[in-house]
């Protein structure tokens, strides 16, 4: 009557517009509500301050709403709401900008607060900045209080004056930071050695400037060879301030300063005075030392003067003698050089007698260094005599380093070829010199010429050829400070620029080790930095511009870099850098000469013969022994043998020299050999030393202590364990970096742990020569690289400390005599180990990219525990001592013996167990070795699992009752066999189970005949085997009210696996379930977790290819709480079971490590991981792991045996046909109970047809490189039934309708995966065969009304009243389906915030949408 039908279109338009406007209005209201509640999370900082905890949630909401507002503003229906939309857009922009500013201010404030808040001295030295910071500090507190009171992010950022205050604070903080940087730069320019310190170290020194004794720990970082200054306190002898009177070197040498240095005033001033005093003292003392040389007995002279002075005096004297002899030869004295040689030989014999005598540690070092240099002097004289040199201008003489006094002030100068260098007078202590070989001479010549030509030097060559050491040795000869820096790929041009600035101003030398690890982009900038320094030296400038600042120039600085050109992860040097560096190839050092001279300097008289034998032996080892990753016969290996021989010679001077050397060779090499190389090595030794017998060494107290500790720990005194502990001890005596290499469960950890306990025991007993040991464990692969050594934030250039660097710093600062072992237990690869190169070699220095250099004192050493060194570089292998622990040598018997020893209370049971172990265990392990294991498990891992499982199940409740002597023996046997089956026998595949079944039936004739032994369990009541089938609930019926994935049909498989898992979880064993995809691993585990008692709680973590170690620790930490300072555990006194699914999914790194697994292994072995923010251990208690993983292949990796060995491994095989038919038959038959009688029999037919078709598809549609996803498993059968079970009796009233639904589901699950028509036709043919055989109907007849085409099924076409679910039905009307989809598309396009899609919906597109919707709407459909 209103005539509205005339205005249908207009009304429709108005209604649509109203609907869209309502949507916009609701969206605006939602934003309003969201920001009314969105909090700004604050947390306490240092107890007195507040800081923003995280802004990720705020940013996420801001981002989402900013996009939504922008889209709504673009809508044509937004006109009525423009004012609101504009208001919110401005508000959100304000919130975003304010929070960004706040976070920037907070970051700067936190850094500066630690400086100004922590040091009174710095506040005094920067008064203006300090007062400005106080003002900022007050403002910061005010801003934080305001924000806390405001509570929400919106109110907090809109509080009056907040943006203005933050902007003002930001400006002031930047100004303070700039002033602080300028202040540090000023201090560095005043005392340029500060350039070699990190900012934190420098701030610490400046912050303690009033107390000179507090600066002592940093002295060594400024002066390489001054450990401490001998300081005299004020108050005595008229002193008003602290005075430095002498220099103490790390090796114990003391050199008095010429005049005391007052340590008062600015720290840089008195350190500069110390430097001047050091140089002046050495200049004065060198002249006096040389003068005293002629009139004093050599023994007295050496004891009276510092080693460096004695060495240099000797070289001045040698140069003078050679010059005189050559001048005499020129005048006609042909024998002048031969006479000089006799004199030199006589001098050497005196020194040699001294070294064989009783000398103190410091004096011995002096004499050994002097002999090393003087032997070279003898050889040079000999060479010149043989070459017929007769003039000081002969080239053979000009090639030598020639020391002489020059000028009226008697300055020492060093000449070589046509170059002349002033002696540097840097005090370098008494730390030995290199043997000078022809290669060393050549390198010296190249480097001195490079300095003369104003160029850098570039020694390059393989590992262990002496590149870095030769540069350092030349610096010792010229008395120049040489800063060794280990380069890494994290270095940037700013860090390097600071180093170069320091070099240019101090005149020191640098040796940048592994230079080509730096990224090539950085190297090109470095080339410009080096060029500016070298150009300034060439132009003889006193000051020059470097990196935008004018600095002074000391032209004696030297820039040397060493590199190994052929490694992975190395850059090629840019051409502009190559042009600045003189290359020098160092390939093959003269090993024989080095051995001879080192032996001679240690007092060996038959050095030449022994050197030849040792060189031959090493050459034969290289050629004839097997090639192992951890073998190395290079220069470092040789030196460790010679150092050991020297120590043995000093300990027993009267022993035969060949016996001493042979013992040293054996002690240093035998530990690293694999068992098959030992006979050949012994044969080579007996050929070269035919008459030499090395007596068996008695390790006395050490061996006794090791045996006592093993006994105390309940372990066997196995010769292998004792031997490896002693070899580790021996190896640590000669090298500060050692590696225990060997397969998992070979006894590596037991060896070092027993040694540590033994040494602590001997210290308590006050046995001389032993100190207590403390260990610090780190798994380097469980920590991201940036958190291992520390990193700069690239945006803010803020330094964050690393775990290894912090532990190392704290350990090295501890000067107590206890030994500190840094135990690095994890895979060694070049990604992280290369940064340890300077720690492992003679430099013993960890260099960080922030410029910090941590020196390693003698009481600190490194011990690596590693499976193999297949991905370590030769540079690493050559630097470490090796102890190879062969798993074959130990075997499983010692473990079994220790286990039986622990169970020795019940003698009767012990006898039964010992007999069972002897009779059954070895047979089972031998059989396992011949069978296929999808995930190979080490034998000892199975044995440990067996023992632990037996301990858990052999209880009176399970029938093993010692009070019942009649049955205890039989029940012990039954449970032992059961445990043996579920440890050794459970890791094999299906064919392997048949073989295991036969073996077990041989061992026990009472196993029931039906099925396999795996189908039986031990029944404590019957005291015999019983079938698992007894425990299966055959009456179980599913409830379709719950999601399909929660339906869990009990079968023999599920009952036996879940029962055993329940036993293991109760026994607190880490368990790993392996099996093909889709065999119900996760379902079984979830059923076990659901049945845990109240004392336990659980959580689930799914691993993926992108899972990181930090994600693992962060996720696990969400379920634990703090108990004590560093101990965490689940709340409520419960035990946490962490279920980790897809354990082997994390992607392997380039060298094969898996950090998520390494952090889990570290926790399983040591019960802690590191808190990356505090760099301290976090002990996690009351937690255990239950894991599942598919067999390796595809994205699933082979996990490390070291990880695997911590788990009890159970392999789940593919269920039998009967089990599969029971599972799915039970489900569908229960569903069909309410259907018509005609339909009910279809259930069995569908179950059989699905299984048979699945088998055919697996056999015929195989995966190939272009079809890698043609992998089918039980989940596919499960998805078919999930689809079929969506039918309801109201809509499926005929057999044909159910069959059509089944065909549709089979097509969706299998056919949709196929990539071409040929495969789809193959599948259709297989499906048609099943239809005809099982249902007596072909494909074409079944779909005759659809023209032979299977229509889509869905549940979205029918509107249902209330909450009723729409039926899953056939959509046989294509026209209605198309119309429905077009309407939905139109609705989507009209929705505010959506980008309109102009799509043509043809049949394939419609069917794709139906398929996608089917997958998405299924729970866990993916």
Describe this structure in words.
This protein is α/β, with parallel strands linked by helices and 1422 residues long. Helices cover 52% and strands 12% of the residues. The chain contains 52 helices and 37 strands. Strand 10, helix 18 and strand 11 (509-513) form a beta-alpha-beta unit. The two termini are 54 Å apart.
What is the makeup of the main sheet?
Answer: 5 strands, parallel
Helix content: 40-55%
Shape: globular
Distance between the termini: 54 Å
Radius of gyration: 40 Å
* Helix/strand structural class: alpha/beta
**Order of the strands making up the biggest sheet:** 17-20-23-16-24
How many extended strands? 37
Low-confidence runs of at least 5 consecutive residues: none
Concise overview:
The chain is α/β, with parallel strands linked by helices.
List the helices and strands and how they pair.
Layout: H1 8-37, E1 41-45, E2 49-54, H2 56-74, H3 82-116, H4 120-125, H5 127-150, H6 153-157, H7 162-190, H8 199-207, H9 212-222, E3 228-232, E4 243-248, E5 254-262, H10 267-295, H11 298-304, H12 307-330, H13 336-356, H14 361-387, H15 395-398, E6 402-406, E7 411-416, E8 419-422, H16 438-452, E9 456-460, H17 467-477, E10 482-486, H18 493-506, E11 509-513, H19 520-538, E12 543-546, E13 549-552, E14 558-561, H20 575-578, E15 581-585, H21 591-601, H22 607-624, H23 635-651, H24 657-669, H25 678-688, H26 700-712, H27 719-734, E16 737-741, H28 748-764, E17 773-778, H29 785-789, E18 791-792, E19 799-800, H30 803-813, E20 819-825, H31 830-833, H32 837-840, E21 845-847, E22 853-855, E23 860-866, H33 874-879, E24 881-884, H34 887-890, H35 893-902, H36 907-930, H37 939-953, H38 965-981, H39 990-1003, E25 1016-1019, E26 1024-1027, H40 1052-1066, E27 1071-1075, H41 1081-1090, E28 1096-1102, H42 1109-1117, E29 1121-1122, E30 1127-1129, E31 1135-1141, H43 1155-1166, E32 1168-1171, E33 1176-1180, E34 1183-1190, H44 1201-1204, E35 1208-1212, H45 1217-1231, ...
Parallel strand pairs: 9-15, 10-11, 11-14, 16-23, 16-24, 17-20, 20-23, 27-34, 27-35, 28-31, 30-33, 31-34
Antiparallel strand pairs: 1-2, 3-4, 4-5, 6-7, 7-8, 12-13, 18-19, 21-22, 25-26, 29-30, 32-33, 36-37
Helix pairs in contact: 2-3, 3-5, 3-7, 5-7, 10-12, 12-14, 13-14, 14-21, 18-19, 21-22, 21-23, 22-25, 23-24, 26-28, 27-28, 36-38, 36-39, 37-38, 40-41, 42-43, 45-46, 46-49, 47-48
